[in-house]
What does this fold into?
Amino acid sequence: MEKNEIVSIQKVDIVNNSEIPSLLNRIRAHWQAKDLISRVRNLIYVDPSSACQRLFNAAIHDLREKIIIAGVDIAKEAAKQNKLPTIEKPEDIEEYSTAKLIDLAYKIGFLTRPDWRRVSRCYEIRRDLEHEDNEYEAGIEDCIYIFKTCVEVILSVDPVHLLKVEDVKQIIEKPTPVYPSETLLEDYKSAPQPRQEEICKFLISIALDGTQSEVIRQNAYKLLGMLQTFTQSQVKLLLANQLQEKIVRKGLERIHVLIAVSAGILPYLKQSYVTDFFTDIFREMEKTGHRWDKYKLHGDLLRSFQEVGGLLYCPQPVRSKIVKWLVFTYVGEVGGMTSFGHVRPVFYSDTAAPLIEEIIKTCKTAIAEDIKSLLSKDRDIKELCKNQFVAKRYEKLLDIIDTTVEKVENI
It folds into this structure.
């Protein structure tokens, strides 16, 4: 047996014992049917370098097609934001160099950062193979790296049919409350950053538009909240910057805060504006009062507070002041005989109590210390808790925040 035949047999054995045959089977049917993949299957046993180059070329061609399917508008915006070559028409994407195309796919969101690094490394290996000489030939490790990356990251992944603004527009313009399907949520989740940004900007503009019907504005507002979980962090930051510009011109209004909470962007707004907003809420609480006989006013006040996130986004030190007001309202005051002739151990707002429990539960970790320290630091709370029945109301708050502080007994 000649030396070349021995080398070929060794190559065949190495390839067969590697992941490559199973990787090739994972390529989408769309590409399986093409002659290029058949040639790759044949070449891998006799010319690994050529097989790697051809498979990489197929992956780049597939990536180019996926970007065109996603839309020129998406590619244009991504190129503009990231200072890549200008895109105005599909032909511009066709003319993109391989390196720039990989960057564009990453900026659009088709490649994660780790995948972008892997594909870029494959491109470097392919360039080495194109200029190989007698001293360098693709080893099995090169083949596995290129095959694994190209198949797992690109050739086995279906094209993304992106959710469009027009699709969202049709949903919110229905004269009934919006209930997005799981398919819509999944499409939004898989949408690249520019498309998510476009959809959210549209929803925010509708929610702010006073000329729209109340149903449509509410649908836009609610859909923002439903999409929030899947909105990328970078998109939230861009949306916050856009909303911040409106705030600078008009001042922070309640509608801005409602939208910011729904879209998950309130933490990204300038905190001095947010502090001023919650300070106004605290002033309204003080004006209303925490005494039990104001119970008729407590419901609307606290539900309104919940709508803007309650204590969740409330900055210090105004948060501590609001917590103190909530505690006073919740624990009430020493009871006595009611106008109906009944004895109540504690007089407190029945309307406020369940709402305060809900507010505290949503933020209990952040405010636990504020509530626990009131007994030792606030003279009025300490005086109230000398009454065993009021003390039990305070204990109930401690139970809600799951504190390990000793129960209030025999103060």
